C-alpha cells in the first residue's frame, strides 16, 4: 500500500499495532513462565488478558475500514521480544532475571504507548472519534501496565536483584 494519505498512514499504524499485539500474545506466556516473583507473574498474566482485549478493539476498528488487519509484521516488537528471549535464555540469577523482565516489558509498553498515541491522534484528525476512544482506552491500559511494573520494580524486585 502506497502511503500517500493520512488515512493510509493510519491504517499502516493500526496494522503495526495489530502485529505487535499478536506477537505479544505469544511472548507473554513465556515471560510468565520465566518470572520468579508471583506478583510479576500475575502482572504478566493480567496483561495477557488485556492484550487479547486490545486485539479485539483493533479488530473492531478494522471492521469499519476497507482494510484487513493482517499482512504486516511489526519489526520493532519482534526486536523487543527477541531481546527479552535472549535474557530469558542467558545465565542470570532469578532475582536479576525478574528485574530484567520488568525492563524488557517496560520497553514493550513504551513502544506500544507511542504507537497507540500516534494512531489515536491520526484517528482524531481523520474524524474517527469512536476509533480514537478505543485507541485511548488501550493507551490508558498500557500506561497502567507500565506504572504497575514500575511499582513492582521500585518497591521490591530491584532490591532483591541488588542482593542476588
Structural notes for this entry:
The protein is an all-alpha fold and 164 residues long. It has one domain (6-162): Ferritin. It is 83% helix and 0% strand. The protein is built from five helices and no strands. The N and C termini lie far apart (51 Å).
Topology (elements, then pairings):
Blueprint: H1 6-34, H2 38-63, H3 75-89, H4 94-125, H5 129-162
Helix pairs in contact: 1-2, 1-3, 1-4, 2-5, 3-4, 4-5
Structural domain count: 1
Instruction: Give the CATH superfamily.
Output: Ferritin, core subunit, four-helix bundle
Mean pLDDT over the residues: 95
Q: What's the total number of strands?
A: 0
- Give the CA-CA distance, first to last residue: 51 Å
What CATH architecture do you see? Up-down Bundle
Please report which band the strand proportion falls in: under 5%, 5-15%, 15-25%, 25-35%, 35-45% or over 45%: under 5%
Could you spell the SSE succession in H and E letters? HHHHH
What would the principal axes of the Cα set say about the shape? Answer: elongated
List keywords for this structure.
elongated; Ferritin; 5 helices; mainly alpha; about 160 residues
Short description:
The chain has one domain: Ferritin, core subunit, four-helix bundle (Ferritin, Up-down Bundle), CATH 1.20.1260.10. It contains 5 helices and no strands.
Amino acid at each position: 500500500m502506497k502511503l500517500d494519505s493520512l488515512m493510509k498512514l493510519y491504517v499502516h499504524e493500526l496494522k503495526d499495532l495489530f502485529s505487535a499485539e499478536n506477537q505479544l500474545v505469544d511472548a507473554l506466556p513465556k515471560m510468565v513462565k520465566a518470572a520468579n516473583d508471583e506478583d510479576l507473574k500475575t502482572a504478566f498474566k493480567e496483561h495477557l488478558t488485556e492484550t487479547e482485549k486490545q486485539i479485539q478493539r483493533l479488530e473492531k476498528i478494522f471492521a469499519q475500514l476497507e482494510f484487513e488487519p493482517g499482512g504486516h509484521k511489526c519489526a520493532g516488537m519482534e526486536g523487543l521480544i527477541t531481546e527479552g528471549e535472549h535474557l530469558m535464555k542467558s545465565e542470570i540469577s532469578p532475582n536479576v532475571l525478574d528485574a530484567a523482565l520488568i525492563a524488557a516489558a517496560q520497553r514493550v509498553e513504551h513502544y506500544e504507548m507511542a504507537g497507540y498515541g500516534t494512531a489515536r491522534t491520526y484517528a482524531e484528525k481523520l474524524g474517527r472519534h469512536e476509533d480514537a476512544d478505543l485507541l485511548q482506552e488501550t493507551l490508558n491500559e498500557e500506561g497502567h501496565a507500565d506504572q504497575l511494573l514500575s511499582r513492582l520494580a521500585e518497591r521490591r524486585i530491584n532490591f532483591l536483584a541488588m542482593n542476588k
